C-alpha cells in the first residue's frame, strides 16, 4: 500500500490529489480568459524576433489537452472515445468558450473515472496505448504531466492578455 500524509492511503487517492490540483488550475485558467481573447495567440503581439507562427490558440490549447485527456484516460477505463474526435485537436464542431469548457470538464470526468480504477494490484498492468504497451500507472502520469505542460502554456497566454492566472493568486 502506498502511504500518504494526506489522509487516505491508496494509489488512486495519491494520483487523485495531483489530478485535483491540475484540474482546478486548468479550469480556473480557462474560465478566467475573456471570451473575446479565447482565440488569442502570442503571434498577434508581433514581438520582435519571436517565432509564434502556427502555435495553438488559447482555445486550441484547451481542446488539444481535453482531447488527449479523453484519449489517454479512456485507454485506462476501456471506454470508447467520442465518434467526433478526428485528431488530437478535438471535434471541429466545438467553437464557443462555453462549449470548449464543457468539453474540458467532460475530459476531466473521464480522468476521475480512470483514476478510481487504479489499485496497487493493477497499476503495473500493461495496456496498449498508441504504438506500444505501457503500465496503467504510466498512462496516468503521462496524462498529468501533459496537463501540467498545457497549463503552463495557458498561464503564459493569460499573462500576455493581462489576466492573472487564478491559481497563482493564492501563492502570495
Q: TL;DR?
A:
The chain is mainly α and 172 residues long.
Describe the secondary-structure layout.
Blueprint: H1 11-32, H2 58-77, H3 97-116, E1 126-129, E2 132-135, H4 136-160
Antiparallel strand pairs: 1-2
Report on the structure:
The protein is mainly alpha-helical. It has a single domain (11-41, 55-167), classed as Four Helix Bundle (Hemerythrin (Met), subunit A), CATH 1.20.120. It has 4 helices and 2 strands; from the N terminus they run αααββα. The chain has a two-stranded antiparallel ribbon with strand order 1-2. The protein is globular, with a radius of gyration of 17 Å. It starts with 10 loop residues before the first helix and ends in a 12-residue tail after the last helix. Mean pLDDT is 90; it is low at 1-6.
Instruction: Provide the number of structural domains.
Output: 1
Largest sheet at a glance?
2 strands, antiparallel
Structural class, by secondary structure, is: mainly alpha
Compute the gyration radius: what is it? 17 Å
Q: Largest sheet, order of strands side by side? A: 1-2
Q: Might you state the CATH topology name?
A: Four Helix Bundle (Hemerythrin (Met), subunit A)
Total number of beta strands: 2
Mean of residue pLDDT values: 90
Which terms summarize this structure?
single chain, 172 residues, Four Helix Bundle (Hemerythrin (Met), subunit A), two-stranded antiparallel ribbon
Amino acid at each position: 500500500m502506498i502511504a500518504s500524509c494526506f489522509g487516505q492511503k491508496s494509489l488512486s487517492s495519491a494520483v487523485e490529489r495531483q489530478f485535483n490540483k491540475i484540474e482546478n488550475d486548468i479550469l480556473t485558467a480557462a474560465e478566467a480568459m475573456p471570451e473575446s481573447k479565447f482565440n488569442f495567440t502570442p503571434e498577434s503581439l508581433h514581438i520582435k524576433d519571436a517565432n509564434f507562427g502556427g502555435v495553438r490558440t488559447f482555445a486550441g490549447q484547451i481542446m488539444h489537452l481535453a482531447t488527449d485527456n479523453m484519449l489517454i484516460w479512456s485507454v485506462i477505463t476501456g471506454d470508447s472515445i467520442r465518434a467526433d474526435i478526428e485528431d488530437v485537436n478535438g471535434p471541429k464542431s466545438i467553437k464557443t468558450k462555453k462549449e470548449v469548457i464543457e468539453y474540458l470538464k467532460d475530459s476531466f470526468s473521464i480522468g476521475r473515472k480512470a483514476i478510481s480504477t487504479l489499485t496497487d494490484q493493477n497499476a503495473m498492468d500493461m495496456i496498449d496505448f498508441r504504438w506500444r504497451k505501457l503500465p496503467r500507472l504510466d498512462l496516468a502520469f503521462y496524462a498529468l504531466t501533459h496537463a501540467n505542460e498545457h497549463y503552463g502554456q495557458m498561464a503564459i497566454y493569460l499573462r500576455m492578455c493581462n489576466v492573472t492566472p487564478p491559481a497563482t493568486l493564492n501563492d502570495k
